[in-house]
Amino acid sequence: MNERATLRLKAGRDRSLRRHHPWIMSGSVDRVLGDPQPGDTVVVVDEASRPMALASYSPHSSIRARVWAFDVQQSIDDGFVAARITAAAERRRRLGIADGDAVRLVFGEADGLPGLVADRYGSVVVFQITTVGIDRRRDAVVAALASLDGVQCVFERSDGDNRSREGLEPTTGVRHGSLPEPVWAHENGLRFHVDVEHGHKTGFYIDQRDSRRLVAEHSRDRAVLNVFGYTGSFSVAAARGGASSITTIDSSGPALLLAETNARANDVNIGDLVEADAFTELRSLRDRRASFDVIVLDPPKLANNPNQVDRATRAYKDLNLLALKLLRPGGLLFTYSCSGAVSSDLFQKVVAGAAVDANREAHIVRRLGQPADHPIPLHFPEAEYLTGLMLLAL
Ligand code: SAH
């Protein structure tokens, strides 16, 4: 490891770093001195060679370096990584985040650990590495996660397609202990099967915990439509909340089977499971003059980068327009975007446009977003990816 390598910024390109934004983009780099290897720690200096930060070097990524620490005296070693993991877990503990055992323990930059995400499901921790800097510290990551109170299994799910940008191969498997079967996420008195090995993300959408509770609270005696159901978690929540009928749409057969498993595991009936394309099925429901009291619209990420925002907003508009048409007067729409490239402001405008075209008036009765275990640092707004609105249709 070449600790002395230096990355010098172009004149005037130190502003975001001075505000503690943790990314150094390739266009800001004047020179790299000392031949650092991928994942090496470099000293970032301004144009006058004044040290500003220590960062991990990613020569193949447009995010050329990610800050480990603004204190340049800090040693970036296994102990540093372990301490950050312990601190992240401790912050969640102090916040008393979850009424259950499914918690995001580490959320990348928000916890000072760029490229690392770790989710806990009871005694199992599933982590994902997406950058070469933290990849080099994998053993320390595993040891630190394994040493947390009550953890018996640490599983790696580093199979996201974003790894290739950093020159990393996909890798998954048990890294500590053995994987219990099945793994459950307990939440708000419900439990959900977590497919640690093959499920989306680390196996479950922990980030919708607060919204599931809200949907449960508003489901009593209501006809509920859950679009993009996946694990059926919103449907199960609605059933527990006393919904009079539930319809779940997903284009994936296996997802609907998972929804069924989760309904059984919670001893509830989640009604109709419809395997269909959501856009087509919503149109068909509209043509059949179907209507609902509560609709949940939680599509997959529709924009992976800024270039896809236009196309994504058209899709969001289409979905929200159709959903608003299916809502009974006084009905509630819980609508989301998990595309980081679509700001909450833009999302709200898109939904407002959909309401105009649907000829419906609606009120925002609550703004929705990431729960407290997916925090957004003030100096790193990019951490925000999930935005949503709870709307009351008039
Ligand atoms: N609300 C879910 C998470 C949604 S993930 C939960 O609480 O777990 C997105 C889901 O949308 C996936 O299950 C995927 O199979 C489904 N999907 C993707 N494109 C779709 C489409 N065009 N029509 C219907 N479902 C779709």
Description:
The chain is α/β, with parallel strands linked by helices and 394 residues long. The protein has three domains: 6-69, PUA domain (Archaeosine Trna-guanine Transglycosylase, Chain: A, domain 4), CATH 2.30.130.10; 78-183, RNA methyltransferase domain (HRMD) like (Transcription Regulator spoIIAA); 205-393, Rossmann fold (3-Layer(aba) Sandwich). It has helices spanning 15-18, 78-95, 132-135, 138-146, 209-217, 233-240, 253-265, 278-287, 309-326, 344-358, and strands at residues 6-9, 23-25, 29-33, 41-45, 51-57, 63-69, 102-107, 116-121, 124-129, 153-158, 171-176, 183-187, 190-194, 223-227, 245-250, 272-275, 292-297, 327-337, 362-369, 387-393. Residues 200, 205, 208, 228-231, 233-234, 249-252, 255, 277-278, 298, 300 line the site of S-adenosyl-L-homocysteine.
